[in-house]
Amino acid sequence: MATFARPTFSAKAYAAFRPAYPPSLFRTVLNYHQQPASNGTLLDLGCGHGLIARYLRPHFKSVIAIDPSAGMITQAKQTTTDPAITFRQGSAEDLDFLPDGSVDMAVAGQAAHWFDYGKVWPNLARVVRSGGTVAFWGYKDNVLVGAERATEIMERFVYGFGEVAPGIEGMGPYWEQPGRSILRDLLRSVHPPDSDWKEVIRLEHEPGEEGTDETRWMCKKMKLGEVEGYLKTFSAYNGWKEAHPEAKSREEGGEGDVLDIMWDHMIDAVPEWKAMGERWREVEVENDWDPTIDR
């Protein structure tokens, strides 16, 4: 998570362009909890800009939300008015500030792939009360439904090594590992110890499958301009920008960075998008992600 913790990373842009979670996801998590939570405490690990903490707050008496990024915590505090939510800079690997058995539910949305589980599992076994719940969820890569060729091009630029276009290096080397690989494998390598956690359930979805409300919860129509903004929040893109300071984006007055060139290729691949000319960002497309939930 080092990229998100850097002063140059825009927590405001992250909050603006990252997809929100639908009510069906939170219903699934709360139904699994099956405990009266109104008097309990929720622990939000890797809380980011506070989206999950704010949504789940009505179901708990108090929420403790932590994130390693000072920028994320600042953004979360600026957009949260509920005094029952406490934001603090910190990591899932250091929960010494919490008493034993003080947490009713611990959650992590789009953060569990960063954790050092040699420390996190013992921490959670100590702070989550007997009968409490842990729920992790995440999503990896969005597919542009009905635009398979454009999706293939996006995949090449986002994960490619070496040249993906003349003079343009792909973003592949700039993903922080092993975190990204763990996420792309739908958190399958994340296994709660049997000695501490019972009744473990895993839900997965692959793009294009029918699924149910429990599994197909990351599907959203977005304008291409919104997809562009979302891709700019990728840690690998920010790493690529730092490694290629000479490659200024067109927004910055340059000739184009890796994402500008990627979109050129994607627009050329879809005649309907190309026909829109400079208005291509107004095109609406369905995005389907690969989500997973461990509870």
Give a short summary of the structure.
By secondary structure, this protein is of the alpha/beta class.
Poorly predicted regions: none
* Order of strands across the main sheet: 3-2-1-4-5-12-9
Shape: elongated
Q: Structural class from helices and strands?
A: alpha/beta
Can you write the helix and strand succession as a string? HHHEHEHEEHEEHEEHEEHHHHEE
Radius of gyration: 20 Å
- The CATH architecture designation of the largest domain is 3-Layer(aba) Sandwich
Give the class-level CATH name of the largest domain: Alpha Beta
| Relative strand content | 15-25%
- By CATH's scheme, which homologous superfamily of the largest domain applies? Vaccinia Virus protein VP39
- According to DSSP, the number of beta strands is 12
Characterization of the model:
- Strand 1, helix 4 and strand 2 form a beta-alpha-beta unit.
- This protein folds into 2 domains: 182 residues, Vaccinia Virus protein VP39 (Rossmann fold); 99 residues, no CATH class.
- Helices cover 34% and strands 20% of the residues.
- The longest helix has 12 residues.
- It has 12 helices and 12 strands.
- Helix 7 runs antiparallel to helix 11.
- The strands form 3 sheets. Strands 3-2-1-4-5-12-9 form a 7-stranded mixed β-sheet, sandwiched between helices. A 3-stranded antiparallel β-sheet has the order 6-11-10.
- The model has no long low-confidence stretch (mean pLDDT 89).
- By secondary structure, it is an alpha/beta fold.
- It starts with a helix and ends with a strand.
